[in-house]
Amino acid sequence: MLLRHTPAEVTERHALTINPAKTCQPIGAMYAALGMHGCMPHSHGSQGCCAYHRSTLTRHYKEPISAGTSSFTEGASVFGGQANLLQAIDNIFTVYEPEVVAVHTTCLSETIGDDLPQIIDKATKEGKIPKGKQVVYANTPSYVGSHVTGFSNMVKGMARLAQSTGRKNGKVNIIPGWVEPADMEEIKRLAALIGVEIILFPDTSGILNGPMSGEYKMFPEGGVTIEQLRSAGDSVGTLALGEWCSADAARFLDTNNKVPCRVLDIPIGLKATDRFVDALRTIAGVSVPEEVTHERGQLVDMISDMHQYYFHKKVALAGDPDQIISMVEFLVSIDMLPTHVITGTPGKAFAARIRELTAELPVEVNIKVDQQADMFLLHQWIKNDPVDLLIGNTYMKYIARDEDIPLVRWGFPIVDRVGHQYFPTVGYKGALRLLEKILSALLDRKDRDDSEQSFELVM
Amino acid sequence: MISAHDNKAPADPAVIKEKILQKYPPKVARKRAKQILINEALENETPEITANVRTIPGIITMRGCTYAGCKGVIMGPTRDIVNITHGPIGCGFYSWLTRRNQTDASADGAENYMTYCFSTDMQDKDIIFGGEKKLEAAIQEAYDLFHPKGICIFATCPVGLIGDDIHAVAAKMKERLGDCNVFAFSCEGYKGVSQSAGHHIANNQVFRHLVGLNDEQKPGEYKINLLGEYNIGGDGFEIDRIFKKCGITNIATFSGNSSYDQFASAHTADLNAVMCHRSINYVADMLEVKYGVPWVKVNFIGAQSTAKSLRKIARYFDDPVLTERVEAVIAEELPPVMEEAAKVRPRTEGKTAMLFVGGSRAHHYQELFKELGMKTVSAGYEFAHRDDYEGRHVLPGLKVDADSRNIEEIEVNPDETRFNPRKSEEELAALEESGLAFKEYDGMIPDMEKGTMVIDDLNQYEAEKMVELLKPDIFCAGIKEKFSIQKLGIPMKQLHSYDSGGPYAGFKGAVNFYHEIDRLVNSKVWGYLKAPWQENPELSATYVWE
């Protein structure tokens, strides 16, 4: 037993978080920044943060993650980090020649109160930012929110580049939320199929799923360009996918640039994808092409074909609010029972949404959402009320092994499997893949557990 | 755009150094010039390198922070202590099982908290009003849930800034709990210039609060401690297997596969064998001053090095029984390893390697490459000090700079009851006379060939440039460096955490390493970088079916 000390009895904890279901803001900011073309993320603080974030993203994507750090030592912590950041901006533009530097703070620089806009302004005045290049920023103290809010803050930092010329560009902004490069690619594919011109930001496709060719490009071809971000202020509207990771930026564009926005769920599963496709169709005033309806039909077909294996199977989930909401809706829609649900990213609307989605289920549903919601509690719930399936990131594998429950790896980080960077889980095609993964996990388990008499060839 | 498959590399290291430096702003170039050294080590003279200095802001470094060195590296591999990170959630999360430290908690009722991540997850109100109360409550909650022997507290950056007195909280809770040893580490990430400061802070507190607590004599003969071995990929298991076979008793490993009681009993050993000099040499010194246990440098990376280190230990104990057993073990274990090396060698002979790892590994692993007939053309450390490069003789002359001054040095005196010199002055002198060097580490530079390049605190830009210009057959560093190097078509072996595989220490480990390097440098995948139509693009023509 790897988690041998976890007791079944749940006791109240107020101060100690054990096995968190979240991490800190800056890593989200770093991931979002990588979705800009030619961008060097920069971590303003001591160098461990940057090292940890780069390592975690590297392990998740199996791709190079470049990012700078202000490398604070004790002096900078006492006297302020301005000199370090100015030097860093100068060095980064000289040595790596990026188009844009995306600075985010850490708990260290936030606690001492470094003023990013002021320092960036100074860097501009001192000529440390070459002409035509940009520095964007986000405040991401780690003692507020989680990696999800950090992502959201940097996306808002990107939205600040938007300009309004008074002439609409006929495009739709799509803010995809914290999804994988493959998901961003899939969203672009769907929009192209439907015939909507979009500005997708951030867009990590082409950056974090790059080829091996004998060449190393610090700045691959992908990502949203500065020009596109500027133009986002002239778009006809914004679709924000995910209240937690995308809505802030969309509302900013709405208020600041008069670009109307709609906040949708991330299109994971049948219903959320339906709403996404429907929204795109109405915004663009086009009919949904047969090809998309066909993909939808294939998904419905698979749900009906294999329904007997999903029906009323209990699931425990831990992850990020936007993803979990869509996933829970999907599970309910195929008659599965999401029974224990945890997210470490706070937000009042979460529990209400999950309650609403699971209201009709014939089981008691445990929900915990706050900064202290952790996998230790999730594990305790599972000990008291066992489930058939786990859905979550790699850290869930310890629960999976101890309790002998199949695990579908999904979310962030996944450091022990590949595929998440290449195969989408959004859209109808993504839902097919999710379904296949869930089904394989359940059927592998059934094959393992069935007696010789009842061992099935055809399923 | 950099490609590693262009024309032949320039061989002149001075030209290479020049090429690397020319991209930097002048101030950066001046600083880096002192950390890039063209090796001209002669018999008794080692060139001087600048090391353990601040990382340049904005230059993509391989380094981590003090917290990572303290909580991740030193205390991470200890299984039965509850390690609570005091701070916002990130630091605790990232140091949650991310090094491949293995541990053996298979004994009945054994405690193992390594799979858990404990944090006070400080929120903004804790930063504003202080986090001491929350820390106190967290320690109590951990105690109530697990009743561990020990609870350790690790400070993250903001904790130092807001002035939480973690040591006072720890002392208070230790007193209150009674049967649980609670102590804390002021290992805020901004202290020092690299992980190295964190190793120091961790070791000091383990020495101060834990070593010496259990005087009970452990069974076994020829008792040693193994210092600076972290059981990555099971290295420590293999070393322990060899010790056992030789009849050597390992009282404590600092800190791979370690336990609370091992640390508490460390002062009962009769010799300290130091693997990673950087992370722990000062503990070896302190154990000698306080308890009278001498130390020697060992290296269990490489089959020949393993044999050499075993003989060194045997010579210290100076007992024909042990010497005979050690020789018998070497005679049994070494030949099959060398046979395996000989099998692999035709596929590795003459190939080149670059190693930029940790604070001893870039040195140690050169032994294994030598056994494969491979040459290390460039190497350096991520967080070393000058003595790791040049040898311990530079220590007295090292100036303590501002960044090192805030890393505590413990004043140690002989323990009133426990100090017991294991060898008399005369015995030590005689052993020295016979060639056994105590408190000695020559450093990496003297072991490297003339004209090789030694680079401290290598960064991503320089790594790519070195690969482009010197075209090694393999590159070794950490996970952050792995994939940019591999995009260039050069295999990259992680030697901080090994990616997968291991052990690579000891005899069986050496064989694992030979096979791993063979796999990497001879993988078919490196031949697939260009598609057929990219190899001969000019031969495009209409293909006629008819």
TrEMBL record, chain A:
Ranges where the Nitrogenase/oxidoreductase component domain occurs: 24-442
Full protein name: Nitrogenase molybdenum-iron protein beta chain
Coiled coil region boundaries: none
CC cofactor note: Binds 1 [8Fe-7S] cluster per heterodimer.
InterPro entries: ChlB/BchB/BchZ, Nase/OxRdtase_comp1, Nase_comp1_CS, Nase_Mo-Fe_CF_bsu
Pfam family, one: Oxidored_nitro
EC top class named in words: oxidoreductase
Annotated gene: nifK
Domain of life the protein comes from: Bacteria
Cofactor(s) the protein requires to work: [8Fe-7S] cluster
UniProt KW rRNA-binding keyword: no
Keyword Iron-sulfur in record: yes
Subunit comment: Tetramer of two alpha and two beta chains. Forms complex with the iron protein (nitrogenase component 2).
Automatic annotation (TrEMBL), chain B:
Cofactors demanded by this protein: [8Fe-7S] cluster; [7Fe-Mo-9S-C-homocitryl] cluster
SUPFAM superfamilies attached to this UniProt entry: Helical backbone' metal receptor
Enzyme class, UniProt record, top EC level: oxidoreductase
Cellular component aspect of the GO annotation: molybdenum-iron nitrogenase complex
Domain Nitrogenase/oxidoreductase component, chain residue ranges per copy: 65-521
EC number: 1.18.6.1
InterPro entries attached to this UniProt entry: Nase/OxRdtase_comp1, Nase_comp1_asu, Nase_comp1_CS, Nase_Mo-Fe_asu
Reaction catalysis annotation: N2 + 8 reduced [2Fe-2S]-[ferredoxin] + 16 ATP + 16 H2O = H2 + 8 oxidized [2Fe-2S]-[ferredoxin] + 2 NH4(+) + 16 ADP + 16 phosphate + 6 H(+)
Domain of life: Bacteria
Keywords per UniProt: ATP-binding, Iron, Iron-sulfur, Metal-binding, Molybdenum, Nitrogen fixation, Nucleotide-binding, Oxidoreductase
Known role: This molybdenum-iron protein is part of the nitrogenase complex that catalyzes the key enzymatic reactions in nitrogen fixation.
Family to which this protein belongs: Belongs to the NifD/NifK/NifE/NifN family.
PANTHER family in the record: NITROGENASE MOLYBDENUM-IRON PROTEIN ALPHA CHAIN
Protein name: Nitrogenase protein alpha chain
